C-alpha cells in the first residue's frame, strides 16, 4: 500500500541503487572488496535488516506524490515553464492585457490532458506491481515446516521452496534439487526471451551436498558474493561451510559459486519437482529488476528542431517587445503628453515617470500579449499523436509474425518521426537477416569433405543407417567395414606429451571381438540397452586422429583407409554429442528426444547427429549418456569450460567409459586453428582445412572446428587443481578461469569441421532492395567468416557486383592505412571509368551512382578504430554502395555506428561552414548565429538505425539513433534494449517506408500548422499596437484568446495529424520506396516560409480589412473595440480552418466533422459566453452584446466572406500552380491513385504514365521537371 501513499518515489529508477544502469556491469577486483560486497549467513536467525525488501514498484506515482512529481516532470520542459510564466504574469493586472483566467485555463487543460494520460499508463503499472508483490511462494523454516507466504515477505537469507511451473520470487542460490540426477531445469523466457530449457545445479559440495530438505537445514556457513549488479552472464561467489552431514564432525570448506548455481527471479522451474534455494538478492536488487532500466533516452529529431525554433521565436518575441516598448516610450514622449485628456502627465501605477521603468513594464505587457507566438497546444498534441502512431505500429497486422503471432512493438514513441529520416541501416546477420533455423549440410574429417549443401538431412526418410548412406556413402561404407572387422574397433591410445611430441602408445582399450554385432541396415531408433552395458568403441582408443596410420587429404583409399575413416567418424560425432550445453526431453506425443539449449548451432548439430544414429540421450548429475549407432555409453563430465564471446569456444573434460580422460573442444576456426598440435603433416592438414572452410563459406554455410586432446590422469589432476583454485576466486574469477582454460586447450588434435546452413528469412532480399531504393545505405555487420558474410550479402542482394568488390584485410595499423588509401583511389578511378561514373545518375538522388562495395574484417578494424585512419574508413565507406563487416566484436559494432554518425555530422557541418565562407566578409559575422543553428540541426538530424536480435547486438542498438530488436531465437536482450521490436527483418521495410513516412509527414505538418495558426493570431495583436498608441491593449478578452488556441483550432489540427496521409493507399508508399524522406517539409527554410511568413500575411489580411472597414465606415459599421476584435478573431479562425482543409491530402469523414464542427461552434460561443457570465452576475464589456451586434450587421458577413475568399483564393491558386507545373512525387502518385479509382483500368493508366515518364523508378525531385503535369496526363488519357 505504500506506493499509493506516495512513497513509491523512493523506488524511482533515477533514485534507485546506483548500480542499476541497464547495462551489463562487470565486477572488478577492487569492487568485490568494497563494503557493498554481500555476506549472507546460511540457516541463521532471520535478520532482514540491511537488505532491501522483495517488493517492486515500477509505478511512478502514488496518491500523495502524484501532483508534485507530475508537475516536476512537466515543468522541467522549457516550453511549459514558458507557459507557466505567462499565466503567472497575467495575474499582475498592472501589466497584463488579458484576464488571468484565460491563460490559466489553457495551461490547466493542457496539464489535465497530460495527467490523464500519465495516470492511465501508471494504473497499469500499479496493477502489475500488486499482482507481482502478492504472488504466492513457500518458506522453509528452521523447524522443518514449509509455510506459504507472499513474495513481498521474502527476505535475503530465507530458504525458499519452489515447485514446477512456479516462478522464482527472488534471486536464489540452489541448495537442493528433487530429481535424482541432482539437476533442475528452468525456463528463462521472462528474463532473456529464450524458450529453451536450461540446466541448473545445486552448489557442488561433494559429500557435504544436501540430498534431502532436512539435510539442507543442517547446513551452516556463509555465502560471500558480489554486490547487486545487472550482469546476467556472470556471478561471483563463494560458499563457506563449517558443517558436513556425516559423523566426522565439522570442518570448514569453501565451494565456488557461479551463475550455474543461481536461479534468477523471473525464471520458471520446469520438469524438476521442487528445489530449495537461499535468497541472495531481492526486489529492486534482483538481476531482472537491475536490467529493467529503460534504454538510453533518445530524443526525436522534431523535438530537437522545436527546441531550436522555439528559441528563435522567443528571441523574435523579445525583439518585437523591445521595439514596441521603445515605440510606446516615444509615443508617450512626443504624442501622449500633447493629449491632456490621456493624463500621461499624471504618474500612477503603470505610468511611471522613469522612462526605463516605464519601458520595462510595457515590455512585460507586450511579452504577455505576444505569448501566442508559441503554441501551447502543440506539445500535448504531439504527445497524443506520437502515442497513436505507436498504436498504429503495434496493431499493424501486416507486421505480425505468423509463426509466433507477435505484433511489432513501439517501445519508444518519442522518436517515431525518426523512422522516416533514416540514412544508414546497420544490420546483424545471424538471426536478423537469416532465420536462425540451423541445419547441418556438410562436414569435413581431417581435411576431407563429406556431404552436400544440396542434401536436406532433416527431410531424409528411413533409418539412421539409410540416412547416413544418403548423406555420404563413404561414411556409411567406412562404418560398415569397421563393424565387419571387429578387431578394427580396438585401437591403441596415443597420448601426446605436453610438448606436443608424438607420445607413447598404451595398451589396447577394448579386447578383441568385444564390440558385438553391428548391422548398418538395421533400425537404430530403438531404446538403448540397459545402463551399465558400455562398449569399448566409446573409449579414448577410438581417436583415429591420434593413430599412426596415414590419413587426411592424401590418405589412400581401400579397406584400411575406410576403417580409419570410421574411427574418425566416431570421434567426430562423439565430440558433437558430448561437448554441448543442451538438455534432452521426450516429445509429449512421439516420445522422441527433443533438444533444448541456448545455442541454435548446438541444437542443429545434435539433431543432425540423432538423424544419423549418434544420439545424445540424457544428462544425469555429472554424467552424460549417449547412444552411438545403437550402442549406449556414459561419459563422466569432469570439467566444463563454458563458451564466452572472448574465448569463442567451448570445452569439456570427460572420462570415457574405459577411463581415458579427454578434452573435447569446438569453436570458431579463428581461435581453434592456432591451438592445434603441430606435427609432420600439420601444414598439409592445415591447408586442406582452410580449403574446406573457404569452400563451405562460399556456399554461405556457418562453420565450427572440432578438436580433442587426450590427457593423462596426472596431467588432468595437476591442471584441475589450478582450475578449481581459479574458480574459487571472488576477484577476477572470469579472467583467471580463462587463463587456466587456455593452458589445457593447447596441442589439440583436429577432428573435423561442421558446415551449417542458416537460411535467409523470407522477404529479406526484397526488403534490402527497397531500403536501398529509398536512399538508405545498408551495412551488414557480423561475427561470421568473411566468405560466409559475402555469400549472404550476395544472396540478400546487398552486393550487386561481386566482381567490383573491394576487400580490406590488414595485419598492422600501417598496412590498414595504406590499404584504405589504395582502395579510396581505386573507388575514385572506378567511378570515373565505369558506366556508373559521372554520366550515370541515380534515380533516387540525382547523384552519381555508387559503384564500389566494401568488405572489411574485425582484425583490420582493430587496427583502424581509435586511429586517424578512422576518417579514411568513413570516407571510403560513405562512397560505397554496400559495406560488409565480418568477424566484428560487439564493441566494434557499436564503434562503427558511432564513427559513421560523427562522420555524417561532420559532413553536414562542413557543408554549412563552406557555404558561410563563400559569403562576403561583411555577411559572415551576422550569419554566425545561423551557422550555430545549422550545425545544431546537423547534429540532431543525422539518423542511424541498427537492427539485431542477440545480446551481442545491444551495444550497436544503443549506439544508434534508432534501435530495432528482432524478436527471434536468441533471447530478448536486443528487444529489451531497442526502441522498436519486430518479428522479422522484412517488417523493417513497412516500418520505415509506411509508418516512418506517415509519422514524418504528419508531425512535420502538425508543427508547421500549429505555429502558423498561433502566429496568425498573434500578428493581429501586434499590428493593433500601431493604432492604439502602443498601449498594449488586446483585441479580445483573455478567455476568448485562450479558447482560440486550446479548442477551436486545437481539435482540427489533432484530427489532421492523426488521419492525414500523403497518398490514399498506404501500400503505395511501400511499393514506391523512392518517396521515402524525399521532402524537406520541416527544414528551417520551409518552416519559416509556411509557418511564419504565411501566418504574418494571413494575420495582416485578417486585421487590416476589418480595422479599415471600421475606421472608414458609416454609422452602420462595426466600430467599437470588442466588436472589431471579435470580427478579426472569427476571421482568423476561419482562415486557419480553410488552410488546414486545403493542405489536407486525405480528408476522412471524421476529420471533416471535427474541423467543420470546431468552426461552427465559434458562433454559438460568442452568443453563449455572455449568458454564462450573466448567470454568475458578472458583466464583461468584452462579451456583453457583442455577438448580437456583429451577427446582425451585414458588414460583418461581407468582411468575413471577403477575407475567406481572398486568403483561400490565393492559396488555392498557388497550390494549383504547383500541382500543374511543379508537382512532387507524392502528388504524382496521388494522381495515379485518382486515375485508378475513376477509370477502373489502373494497369492501362499506369502504363500510359510510364510512357510519359512517371514511373516509380524514375520518380525524382520536383526540380528535375516532369514531362507533363498529372492533371494534363489525366486529360490525355
UniProtKB/TrEMBL annotation:
Which protein are we looking at? Phospholipid-transporting ATPase
- Keywords assigned by UniProt? Magnesium, Membrane, Metal-binding, Transmembrane, Transmembrane helix
Q: Where in the cell is it found?
A: Membrane
Superkingdom, taxonomy of origin: Eukaryota
* Gene3D superfamilies linked: Calcium-transporting ATPase, cytoplasmic domain N, Calcium-transporting ATPase, cytoplasmic transduction domain A, HAD superfamily/HAD-like
Q: Which InterPro entries does the record cross-reference, listed alphabetically? A: ATPase_P-typ_cyto_dom_N, ATPase_P-typ_P_site, ATPase_P-typ_TM_dom_sf, ATPase_P-typ_transduc_dom_A_sf, HAD-like_sf, HAD_sf, P-type_ATPase_N, P_typ_ATPase_c
Cellular component aspect of the GO annotation? plasma membrane
Report domain P-type ATPase N-terminal positions.
Answer: 45-101
Amino acid at each position: 500500500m505504500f506506493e499509493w501513499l506516495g512513497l513509491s518515489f523512493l523506488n524511482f529508477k533515477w533514485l534507485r541503487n546506483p548500480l542499476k544502469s541497464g547495462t551489463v556491469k562487470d565486477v572488478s577486483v577492487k569492487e568485490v572488496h568494497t563494503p557493498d560486497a554481500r555476506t549472507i549467513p546460511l540457516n541463521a536467525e532471520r535478520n532482514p535488516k540491511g537488505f532491501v525488501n522483495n517488493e517492486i514498484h515500477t509505478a511512478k506515482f502514488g496518491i500523495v506524490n502524484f501532483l508534485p512529481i507530475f508537475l516536476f516532470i512537466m515543468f522541467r520542459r522549457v516550453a511549459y515553464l514558458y507557459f507557466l510564466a505567462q499565466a503567472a504574469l497575467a495575474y499582475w493586472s498592472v501589466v497584463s492585457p488579458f484576464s488571468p483566467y484565460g491563460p490559466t485555463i489553457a495551461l490547466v487543460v493542457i496539464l489535465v490532458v497530460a495527467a490523464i494520460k500519465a495516470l492511465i499508463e501508471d494504473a497499469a503499472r500499479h496493477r502489475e506491481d500488486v499482482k507481482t508483490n502478492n504472488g504466492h511462494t513457500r518458506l522453509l523454516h528452521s523447524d522443518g515446516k514449509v509455510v506459504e507466504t507472499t513474495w513481498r515477505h521474502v527476505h535475503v537469507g530465507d530458504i525458499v521452496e519452489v515447485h514446477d511451473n512456479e516462478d522464482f520470487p527472488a534471486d536464489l542460490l540452489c541448495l537442493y534439487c528433487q530429481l535424482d540426477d541432482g539437476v533442475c531445469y528452468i525456463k528463462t523466457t521472462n528474463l532473456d526471451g529464450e524458450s529453451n530449457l536450461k540446466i541448473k545445479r545445486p552448489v557442488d559440495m561433494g559429500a557435504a551436498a544436501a540430498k534431502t530438505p532436512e539435510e539442507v537445514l543442517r547446513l551452516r556457513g556463509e555465502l560471500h558474493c558480489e554486490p547487486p549488479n545487472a550482469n546476467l552472464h556472470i556471478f561471483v561467489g563463494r560458499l563457506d561451510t563449517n558443517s558436513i552431514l556425516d559423523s566426522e564432525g565439522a570442518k570448514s570448506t569453501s565451494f565456488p559459486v557461479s551463475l550455474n548455481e543461481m536461479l534468477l527471479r523471473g525464471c520458471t522451474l520446469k520438469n524438476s519437482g521442487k528445489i530449495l534455494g537461499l535468497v541472495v538478492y531481492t526486489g529492486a536488487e534482483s538481476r531482472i529488476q537491475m536490467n529493467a532500466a529503460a534504454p538510453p533516452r533518445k530524443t526525436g529529431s522534431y523535438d530537437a528542431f522545436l527546441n531550436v525554433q522555439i528559441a528563435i521565436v522567443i528571441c523574435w518575441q523579445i525583439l518585437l517587445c523591445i521595439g514596441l516598448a521603445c515605440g510606446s516610450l516615444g509615443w508617450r514622449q512626443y504624442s501622449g503628453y500633447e493629449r491632456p485628456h490621456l493624463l500621461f502627465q499624471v504618474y500612477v501605477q503603470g505610468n511611471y515617470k522613469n522612462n526605463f521603468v516605464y519601458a520595462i513594464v510595457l515590455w512585460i505587457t507586450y511579452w504577455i500579449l505576444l505569448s501566442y507566438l508559441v503554441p501551447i497546444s502543440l506539445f500535448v498534441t504531439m504527445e497524443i499523436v506520437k502515442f497513436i502512431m505507436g498504436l498504429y505500429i503495434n496493431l499493424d497486422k501486416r507486421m505480425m509474425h505468423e509463426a509466433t503471432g507477435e505484433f511489432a512493438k513501439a517501445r519508444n514513441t518519442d522518436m517515431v518521426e525518426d523512422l522516416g529520416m533514416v540514412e544508414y541501416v546497420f544490420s546483424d546477420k545471424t538471426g536478423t537477416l537469416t532465420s536462425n533455423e540451423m541445419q547441418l549440410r556438410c562436414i569435413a574429417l581431417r581435411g576431407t569433405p563429406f556431404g552436400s549443401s544440396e542434401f536436406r538431412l532433416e527431410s531424409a526418410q528411413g533409418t539412421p543407417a539409410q540416412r547416413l548412406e544418403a548423406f555420404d556413402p563413404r561414411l556409411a561404407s567406412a562404418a560398415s567395414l569397421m563393424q565387419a572387422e571387429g578387431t578394427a574397433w580396438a585401437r591403441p591410445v596415443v597420448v601426446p606429451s605436453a610438448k606436443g611430441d608424438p607420445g607413447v602408445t598404451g595398451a589396447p582399450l577394448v579386447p578383441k571381438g568385444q564390440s558385438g554385432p553391428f548391422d548398418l541396415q538395421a533400425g537404430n531408433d530403438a531404446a538403448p540397452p540397459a545402463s551399465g552395458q558400455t562398449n569399448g568403441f566409446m573409449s579414448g582408443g577410438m581417436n583415429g586422429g591420434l593413430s599412426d596410420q596415414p590419413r587426411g587429404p592424401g590418405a589412400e583409399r581401400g579397406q584400411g583407409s575406410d576403417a580409419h575413416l570410421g574411427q574418425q567418424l566416431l570421434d567426430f560425432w562423439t565430440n558433437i554429442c558430448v561437448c554441448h550445453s543442451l538438455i534432452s526431453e521426450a516429445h509429449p506425443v512421439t516420445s522422441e528426444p527433443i533438444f533444448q539449449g541456448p545455442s541454435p548451432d548446438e541444437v542443429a548439430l545434435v539433431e543432425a547427429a540423432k538423424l544419423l544414429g549418434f544420439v545424445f540421450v540424457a544428462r544425469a548429475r555429472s554424467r552424460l549418456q549417449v547412444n552411438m549407432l545403437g550402442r549406449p555409453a556414459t561419459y563422466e563430465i569432469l570439467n566444463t569450460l563454458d563458451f564466452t564471446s572472448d574465448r569463442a569456444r567451448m570445452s569439456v573434460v570427460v572420462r570415457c567409459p574405459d577411463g581415458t580422460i579427454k578434452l573435447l573442444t569446438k569453436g570458431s576456426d579463428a581461435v581453434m586453428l592456432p591451438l592445434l598440435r603441430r606435427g609432420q603433416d600439420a601444414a598439409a592438414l592445415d591447408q586442406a582445412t582452410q580449403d574446406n572452410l573457404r569452400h563451405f563459406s562460399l556456399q554461405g554455410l556457418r562453420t565450427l572446428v572440432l578438436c580433442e586432446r587426450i590427457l593423462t590422469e596426472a596431467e588432468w589432476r595437476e591442471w584441475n587443481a589450478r582450475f578449481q583454485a581459479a574458480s574459487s576466486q571472488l576477484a577476477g574469477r572470469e579472467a583467471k578461469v580463462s587463463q587456466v582454460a587456455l593452458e589445457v586447450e593447447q596441442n589439440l588434435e583436429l577432428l573435423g569441421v561442421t558446415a551449417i546452413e542458416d537460411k535467409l528469412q523470407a522477404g529479406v532480399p526484397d526488403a534490402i532492395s527497397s531500403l536501398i531504393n529509398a536512399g538508405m545505405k545498408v551495412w551488414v555487420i557480423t561475427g561470421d567468416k568473411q566468405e560466409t558474410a559475402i555469400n549472404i550479402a550476395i544472396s540478400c542482394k546487398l552486393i550487386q557486383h561481386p566482381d567490383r568488390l573491394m576487400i580490406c584485410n590488414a595485419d598492422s595499423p600501417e598496412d590498414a592505412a595504406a590499404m584504405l588509401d589504395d582502395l579510396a583511389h581505386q573507388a575514385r578511378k572506378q567511378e570515373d571509368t565505369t558506366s556508373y561514373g559521372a554520366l550515370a545518375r541515380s534515380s533516387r538522388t540525382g547523384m552519381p551512382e555508387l559503384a564500389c562495395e566494401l568488405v572489411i574484417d574485425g582484425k583490420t578494424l582493430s587496427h583502424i578504430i581509435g586511429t586517424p585512419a578512422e576518417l579514411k574508413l568513413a570516407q571510403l565507406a560513405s562512397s560505397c554502395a554496400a559495406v560488409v563487416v565480418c568477424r566484428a566484436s560487439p564493441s566494434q559494432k557499436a564503434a562503427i555506428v558511432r564513427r559513421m554518425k560523427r562522420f555524417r555530422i561532420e559532413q553536414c557541418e562542413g557543408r554549412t561552414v563552406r557555404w558561410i565562407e563563400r559569403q562576403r566578409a561583411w555577411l559572415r559575422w551576422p550569419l554566425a548565429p545561423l551557422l550555430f543553428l545549422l550545425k545544431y540541426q546537423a547534429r540532431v538530424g543525422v539518423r542511424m538505425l541498427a537492427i539485431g536480435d542477440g545480446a551481442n547486438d545491444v551495444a550497436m542498438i544503443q549506439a544508434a539513433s534508432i534501435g530495432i530488436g528482432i524478436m527471434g531465437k536468441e533471447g530478448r536482450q536486443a528487444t529489451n534494449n531497442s526502441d522498436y521490436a519486430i518479428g522479422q527483418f522484412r517488417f523493417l521495410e513497412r516500418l520505415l517506408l509506411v509508418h516512418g513516412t506517415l509519422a514524418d509527414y504528419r508531425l512535420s505538418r502538425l508543427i508547421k500548422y500549429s505555429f502558423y495558426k498561433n502566429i496568425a493570431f498573434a500578428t493581429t495583436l501586434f499590428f493593433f499596437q500601431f493604432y492604439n498608441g502602443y498601449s498594449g491593449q488586446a483585441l479580445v478578452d483573455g478567455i476568448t484568446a485562450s479558447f482560440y488556441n486550446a479548442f477551436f483550432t486545437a481539435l482540427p489540427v489533432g484530427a489532421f495529424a492523426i488521419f492525414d496521409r500523403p497518398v490514399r493507399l498506404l501500400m503505395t508508399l511501400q511499393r514506391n520506396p523512392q518517396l521515402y524522406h524525399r521532402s524537406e517539409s520541416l527544414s528551417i527554410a520551409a518552416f519559416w516560409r509556411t509557418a511564419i511568413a504565411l501566418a504574418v500575411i494571413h494575420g495582416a489580411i485578417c486585421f487590416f480589412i476589418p480595422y479599415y472597414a471600421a475606421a472608414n465606415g458609416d454609422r452602420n459599421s462595426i466600430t467599437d473595440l470588442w466588436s472589431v476584435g471579435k470580427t478579426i478573431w472569427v476571421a482568423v479562425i476561419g482562415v486557419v480552418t480553410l488552410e488546414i482543409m486545403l493542405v489536407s491530402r486525405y480528408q476522412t469523414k471524421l476529420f471533416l466533422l471535427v474541423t467543420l464542427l470546431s468552426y461552427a461552434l465559434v458562433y454559438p460561443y460568442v452568443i453563449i459566453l455572455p449568458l454564462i457570465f450573466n448567470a454568475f452576475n458578472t458583466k464583461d464589456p468584452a462579451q456583453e452584446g457583442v455577438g448580437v451586434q456583429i451577427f446582425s450587421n451585414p458588414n460583418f458577413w461581407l468582411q468575413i466572406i471577403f477575407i475567406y475568399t481572398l486568403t483561400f483564393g490565393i492559396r488555392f491558386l498557388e497550390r494549383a500552380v504547383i500541382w500543374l507545373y511543379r508537382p512532387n512525387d507524392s502528388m504524382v502518385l496521388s494522381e495515379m491513385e485518382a486515375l485508378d479509382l475513376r477509370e477502373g483500368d489502373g494497369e492501362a493508366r499506369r502504363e500510359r504514365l510510364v510512357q510519359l515518364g512517371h514511373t516509380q523508378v524514375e520518380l525524382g525531385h520536383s526540380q528535375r521537371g516532369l514531362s507533363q503535369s498529372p492533371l494534363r496526363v489525366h486529360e490525355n488519357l
